[in-house]
Structures are given as C-alpha cells and as structure tokens.
Backbone:
C-alpha cells in the first residue's frame, strides 16, 4: 500500500489479480448462467469489502445474491460485459439483470436485500446522490489505510462457495 493508502499491485496476490481478460477467452468460456440472479462484484483484497461480503451472507433475506471478486476471471468478465473499467476497484458493483449500480446507489439497493433492521439503512436514499456518492468515495479512498489489505483474495467458507462465481 502506498503512503496515501492507495492499492499497489505488488502487495496483492498475483493469483488473485487478473487485469486483462482476452476477449476471445471471455466469449469462448463465457460466464455461468446467472439465471437472473443479482451479482455483487467487490474488491477481493480489501478487508472492509471482504467483511462486508461476510456480513451480507449472514443477513441477506433471500440468499439470491451471487458474489465475485473484481480481480477474479468472472469479475473481470462481468466488468468487461458491462463496459466498466477492469482495474477501478473503488466501488463495488451490483448487477441486477441489465441494471448496473455502483457507489451509493449500489449500497442502497443492497440494503433492500437485507433483513431488518439492516434493510432500514435504505432510508439514506433521502440524501442527494452527489452527497451520498461523495461520502462513499471518501470511505473508498481510505479503506485500505483504515481497514487494511488482505494478502490474497477473499475465499468463502466451503458452505458458501456455491454463492461465488468461478
């Protein structure tokens, strides 16, 4: 991590990172059939992000959400499919069908999927989006400094692996 808390690729596990996905591979291999299930893409080496995924797994209402680290092959394919930058991990991405949400809008949509009292966090939607995104960006820019960086991508427990792409 650099002195200002930004991610530096030399600190992350090379096995986790996949900056480029060959388009020929992407279309030949394809993604698993998502069957209309929503997908959350997250920064797999971010401690805050990994803990957030664990929290969501424990508190999600319908257990429909699938997960993939952005650095993984599946994450990179989904980012490419939706014309999102492959190496900008300052926001998690929530994909619901053809709708792609990032930053505060993704967080608010995700809150809808949680059990009470956590789903009540969606009342934050009363904040103007520019303000909510600014707050989100501030946390995203400082998350490595405040919470740390994992040595490798987040690995789910064996009982949760079916919820993870790849």
Residues:
């Amino acid at each position: 991590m650099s002195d200002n808390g930004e991610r530096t690729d030399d600190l992350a596990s090379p096995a986790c990172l996949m900056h480029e996905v060959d388009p020929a591979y992407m279309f030949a291999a394809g993604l698993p059939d998502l069957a209309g299930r929503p997908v959350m893409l997250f920064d797999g080496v971010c401690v805050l992000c990994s803990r957030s995924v664990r929290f969501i797994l424990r508190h999600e209402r319908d257990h429909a959400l699938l997960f993939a680290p952005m650095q993984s092959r599946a994450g990179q394919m989904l980012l490419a499919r939706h014309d999102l930058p492959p190496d900008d991990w300052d926001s998690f991405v929530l994909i619901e069908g053809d709708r792609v949400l990032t930053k505060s809008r993704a967080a608010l949509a995700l809150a809808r999927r949680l059990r009470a009292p956590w789903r009540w966090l969606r009342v934050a939607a009363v904040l103007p989006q520019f303000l909510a995104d600014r707050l989100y960006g501030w946390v995203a820019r400082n998350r490595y400094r405040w919470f740390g960086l994992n040595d490798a991508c987040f690995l789910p427990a064996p009982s949760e692996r079916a919820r993870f792409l790849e």
